[in-house]
Write a structure and sequence with these properties.
single chain, 227 residues, mainly alpha, Arc Repressor Mutant, subunit A, Four Helix Bundle (Hemerythrin (Met), subunit A), two-stranded antiparallel sheet, 11 helices, elongated
Length: 227
């Protein structure tokens, strides 16, 4: 194997990763090694050495039994359906536990009084909901309003991605088993605690109230999955 040949393959793959070239990349995953070696016209040994180099550069990572993935996912290298199919309820709760308390804390610093009143309105509507779908509508509006009130484009984009996954059909089905009347009441009370902390401009209390809320949702979903 010549160094020139390896560098040529590396250049092709780096460009493919950067541009999400569909000849070599499917969503955020490289083609299987057999297909990739055929597309590049090189042997598997040379390909593996190139992939090892790119992994060492931080451009790729591997999942046992699933394939080789691009590290820096962007709009060209992923799709909502692909992400949803690989995301478990535990995954999304874990991410929400990190992101949404931060959003609640920032909201306590930045939300306008009009935005806070809108949050309260959404909480009231969720309390009056008589179906899982209706509750979900107002719950989503509540959390979205908090994210909007932060006025940070990066956080908003992350939140929208999370929310989009949550709205996929099998997520809605999963949550409909959780939000029965008693649990919905519990969640609404937690929403009220979050809004109260935001209204009081208490950053730490807002963060803790949101963290407790997301943790409770995770526990309830886990319980529903076991039943």
């Amino acid at each position: 194997m010549s160094p020139v040949a390896k560098e040529k393959i590396l250049d092709i793959l780096r460009a493919a990763i950067g541009e999400a070239d569909t000849r070599f990349v499917n969503d955020d995953r490289l083609l299987p090694e057999r297909e990739l070696s055929a597309a590049l016209g090189v042997g598997r040994r040379l390909l593996r050495e190139a992939l090892n180099t790119l992994e060492g550069e931080g451009l790729l990572f591997r999942k046992q039994g699933q394939g080789t993935f691009i590290r820096e996912v962007n709009a060209k290298t992923t799709s909502l359906r692909s992400l949803t199919n690989r995301t478990s309820p535990h995954d999304i709760i874990e991410v929400r536990q990190d992101i949404e308390p931060i959003l609640a804390g920032l909201s306590a610093m930045r939300a306008t009084q009009i935005e806070i009143e809108q949050m309260k309105h959404f909480v009231r509507r969720a309390a009056l909901a008589d179906s899982p779908d209706e509750y979900e509508q107002w719950d989503s509006a509540f959390h979205s309003k908090i994210a909007e009130s932060v006025r940070n484009s990066m956080y908003w984009s992350i939140f929208r991605l999370i929310n989009s996954v949550r709205k996929e059909h099998h997520w809605v089905s999963s949550r409909s088993r959780v939000f029965i009347a008693g649990v919905s009441k519990e969640m609404v009370q937690q929403h009220e605690a979050i809004v109260d902390a935001i209204q009081a401009r208490n950053v730490r209390a807002a963060e803790e109230a949101m963290r407790h809320h997301i943790m409770t949702a995770g526990v309830r979903i886990h319980e529903a999955e076991r039943n």
